[in-house]
Amino acid sequence: MRITITNLQNAYPIKRQRIREVVKAALCRKKVDAELSIVFVDKDEITRLNKKFLGHKGPTDVLSFPLETNAKCITGEVVVCVPMAIEYAAGAKTEIEGEIMLYVVHGVLHLLGYDDADNKSADTMHRVEKEILAKLGYIVAGF
Q: Contact, 109 vs 125, CB < 8 A?
């Protein structure tokens, strides 16, 4: 397993070891090997990526870019907008780190094939997120 972490923002310190633990916990759901890049960005960068790749205006919390997926290994990139996590955590009165970890897990689960396009699949995805984060000691808003 190879996890590359890149921090391109300065709004909140990134705990690289905790990120690795969260990614590994998410990957255990499907027991696959992985080569992943986890990138932490500001609102300007996530807005640019959201427009370029999804055609959506404005910022979003997390984007996932699968590069190659097969039964044995997934490769891809997860881009997390840290200022969005900070804002949401402040409004929900929850911890910023937990919100960031939620975005990381959410992005990795998308790379693993989970979807949240409809209520049933979103409920399943949120349940899995909650299980993963709870095992690592995180409690996030909405759970």
A: yes
Q: Side chain identity at 52, as an amino acid letter?
A: K
Rounded Cα distance, 77 and 62, in Å:
10
3-state secondary structure of 5: strand
Q: Residue 44, CB half-sphere, CA atoms under 13 Å: how many?
A: 4
Average pLDDT, the chain: 94
Helices 119-135, 16-27: axis angle to 10 degrees equals: 130
3-class SS at 10? coil
pLDDT band at 69 (very low <50, low <70, confident <90, very high): confident
Q: H/E element holding 12?
A: none
The residues near 42 (Cβ < 8 Å, ≥ 6 apart) are 8, 9, 11, 81, 82, 83
**Structure token pair of residue 143:** 């759970």
Q: Which of 142, 62, 73, 70 is nearest to 110 (CA)?
A: 62
Percent of the chain with pLDDT over 90: 85
The model's pLDDT over 70-101, given as tens digits with 9 standing for 90+, comes to 778 999 999 999 999 999 999 988 899 999 99
